[in-house]
Specification:
The chain is built from five helices and six strands. The N and C termini lie far apart (about 55 Å). It has about 170 residues and is an alpha/beta fold. Helix 4 packs antiparallel against helix 5. The mean pLDDT is about 85.
């Protein structure tokens, strides 16, 4: 499964000079936990950092920073990206290597085309595992249709003298 199929296409960005309060409001308005921090460089907007809700809590609130102060100084300048045609295994490896839970997704001309979070990866893996579970259930179901009816199961009893087995509680 390619990253292009599972990444979020909504990229919410904020200028590095914007305030911490503006960042928090933007996150709330767009229901996101991270913003791409941008700055005009060489005549175009370029990503210069990432600001997460955790950064706001730990670096801004815990340190008592001014809510009107700029986001640039607390944004992480380490950006991790992956090409949109990469697969899940590559994304997981990149997240592990970089120690991040979010990756920018790059297009063919170096533009940001998406955003991939650990939640997106878990959701995709969950869907794949659900498909595998359905395939495993289909085998016995198929066999049951073709099978001769079986005798009803016999009751099986617990041996309470077995080490580690608890005696039943009687009331």
């Amino acid at each position: 499964m390619s990253i292009a199929a599972i990444c979020q296409r909504q990229i919410v960005s904020i200028d590095a000079r914007a305030s911490l309060r503006e960042a928090a409001q933007l996150m709330r308005a767009h229901h996101v936990g991270a913003l791409v921090v941008t700055q005009a460089l060489q005549g175009r907007e370029q990503a210069v950092g990432m600001l997460t809700d955790r950064d706001l809590a730990l670096a801004a609130l815990a340190e008592g920073r001014d809510p009107q102060g700029p986001v640039g100084p607390i944004a992480s300048p380490l950006l991790s990206a992956i090409p949109q045609d990469a697969d899940l295994a590559e994304a997981i490896a990149r997240m592990r290597e970089a120690g991040v839970r979010r990756l920018l997704v790059g297009g063919p001309q170096g533009q940001i085309v998406g955003f991939l979070s650990a939640d997106d990866v878990l959701e995709a893996l969950g869907a794949q595992l659900g498909g595998l579970a359905a395939a495993l259930r289909a085998g016995p179901a198929r066999e049951a249709v073709a099978a001769v009816p079986a005798a009803p199961p016999r009751p099986v009893y617990l041996a309470y003298g077995t080490p580690g087995m608890q005696q039943p509680v009687r009331g």
